[in-house]
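Build the 3D complex.
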Amino acid sequence: MSRPAPEPVQTIKQRRDAALSALVQGVPYIRFLGIAFERRGDELTALLPFDDALIGNPELPALHGGVTAAFLEVTAIIGLSWAMIWDDLESGALDPLSLTPDTLPRLPKTIDFTVDYLRAGLPRDAYARARVNRSGRRYASVHVEGWQDKRARLFAQATGHFLMPQRDG
Amino acid sequence: MGNDQAEAARQFIESIPHCRALGIRVDDIGAGVAELSMPYDPKLIGDPKSGVIHGGAVSALMDTCGGAAVISHPAGAAGTATLDLRIDYMRAATPGQRISARAECYHVTRSVAFVRATALDEDRDKPVATATGAFTVDRTREGGA
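Done.
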């Protein structure tokens, strides 16, 4: 009775973090907004650290509605791409060490995106998580929740439809 | 909206920190219609392989444009905030080209303003994106776009 030794935890972490990093680092606009992603297993949380350049209403002050929309859309696209590459990454079909922004699969394209503004975005860090409700060969539907202090007290949520990149085979 | 009022609205919108970060310019504003534009900038790229601007930056332009249309409407909102905004992306904006948006506030009630908007690049016949939104009508001065 012998079974293959489990993969060392560092190998697993390195593979997943390298793939996530390649996915996120390749997009200049994500850097422009200062968005980072934290990973627990396959679960991603997007982080938008507060910055004065994100303000849309200086008198309140409040985050720009466009920043909120963009933050949720970035979270949806990265969440969807991450779900799309996860199986290939874990099976070894996709080699994370060879992943650069040039060799990554194309990103999904937004067809439509609807943002529901529940309350003003406060001048502090914001967080978001995406849930892929349906992901087919051509189309996907993704829901995103954004919050600041309390996880259950959303400041915005969004739903979007995406055109999936055509993959080989 | 008189010339002074339009000029004040233009200055107000162009001074919003995130609008400055995006380089948003007010090209025309008055009577519930606003035209804003944003230069192409490599830092706003969403698809590194094609150099196409991220949809989020187009959303920010459309959202600002919608808010600008609301505050320029004769109903006289002192300020506004977005309640909901739906954007449909028709095609990728051509890399290197300025993106312009035109928003029209087509109906206003005591508390809500309804807006339609279109975004274009240099090809004026094929929209890059369209949007519909509902905005608050703030009666006390709070500002916002």
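The mean pLDDT of chain A is 92.
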